[in-house]
Amino acid sequence: MPLRSLRYCLLIALLSFLVATQTGNLPGQAQTPKTPADSQTQPKTDDLTFGVSVNLVNVLCSVFDKNTNSFVTNLTREDFKLYENNKAQEIRNFSRETNLPITIAMLVDTSKSVAPKLRFEQEAAISFFQSILREKDRALLVQFDSGVNLLQDFTNDPNKLAKQIMNLRAAGGTALYDAIYRVCDEKMIREPGRKAIVILSDGDDESSSVNLAQATEMAIRAETIIFAISVSKGGFFGVGGEDREGDSVLKELAQETGGRIFFPFHVDELDDNFRQINQELRSQYNIGYLSTNPARDGSYRKLEIKVPERGLKLNYRRGYYAPAG
Fold it and tell me: Does residue 131 have a pLDDT over 90?
């Protein structure tokens, strides 16, 4: 073959290879052009990720032995049954949450009704933050009386929190529901992962602009567990008199969100209450499932978790609100 013809053939071959590279069909590969129908039926990766994320429901669950009140931490996925609106759900994700970061908001009642106990609350709260906060954890401090005041925004420094705790002064009424609503709406709902509110109060609300139902709903939407320590007026710190309206309020807040309420009789029991809260936050199971109800109707859906073993007590939020729109 003449040299000029050879060069011409090589040039044609090179041009053909470059065209094939640009179109995604290398020599030897079958061409599979996309049709408009193909592009419509194949969802994008982003769409798939979004579709899963809005239907995934995560529930934190604590399990106690009824006789010893100790935490049970050796259960497996197979030990749990989960129901949404009485319909069984398949558990997709399961883990024991022991070392994951925790976001905590402490709400301290500084109304006149708790003034005699404030000093003991301060000491116990400082001890709590010093024992629970780890490097990746964060906490904030809010005081509420007639109003709601953020004293310390999120920090992992217990000394900053201690400084603000010692500055607490008692005066005015009680805006408990406003404090819960605002902290969940303005702070907790934007935070990922495990979240808890610890309330020191007698539960007697006198000054809020929102009601108990609205405060509870916002806590559920923010996926925030509420632990309440009652500093009611009965005895020195109260004897767990659930006939008191304030104690009933605190109990309802805790039950609906998956937390607990404590009734310390002596001031030295406060440290033990905080210790139990700390231990529970480090002993939870995280149970995740994809709801069989795909409706984005914003409705409240009831949750129920069961374990076959007898003699156990479970703490978890009683429901959640489906996505809307």
Answer: no
Measured CA to CA, the distance from residue 111 to residue 115 in angstroms comes to 7
Residue 51: the pLDDT is 36
Q: How far apart are CA 257 and CA 105, in angstroms?
A: 14
Strands (E) in 66-117, as ranges, are 81-84, 87-89, 91-97, 102-109
Question: Is the sign of the CA dihedral 275, 277, 278, 283 positive or negative?
Answer: positive
Encoded tokens for 163: 């400084």
Whether 300 maps to a domain, the answer reads no
> CB count, 10 Å around CB of 153?
12
Q: Name the token pair of 267.
A: 């001031």
- Count Cβ atoms below 10 Å from residue 207 Cβ, excluding itself: 17
Q: What is the mean pLDDT of residues 100-112?
A: 93
Answer whether residue 176 shows pLDDT above 50.
yes
| Beta sheet of 56-65, edge-to-edge order | 91-97, 284-290, 56-65, 312-315
19 inside domain? no
Q: Which long-range contacts (CB under 8 A, 24 or more apart) does 236-239 make?
A: 236/265, 236/266, 236/267, 237/117, 237/263, 237/264, 237/265, 237/266, 237/267, 237/269, 237/270, 238/202, 238/263, 238/264, 238/265, 239/263, 239/265
User: Quick one: average pLDDT of 124-137?
Assistant: 91
Range with the poorest average pLDDT among 67-81, 120-134, 237-251, 311-325:
237-251
Q: Which residue range forms the structural domain that includes residue 200? A: 102-281
Higher model confidence: residue 231 or residue 320?
A: 320
In a domain, residue 161? The reply is yes
**Residue 152 counted as domain residue:** yes
State the total domains in the chain. 1
Residue 68 is encoded by which pair of tokens?
Answer: 């010893």
85: pLDDT confidence band, cut at 50, 70 and 90?
very high
Indicate the pTM of the whole model: 0.80
User: What CATH number did the domain enclosing 181 receive?
Assistant: 3.40.50.410
Q: 236 by DSSP, 3-state: which?
A: coil
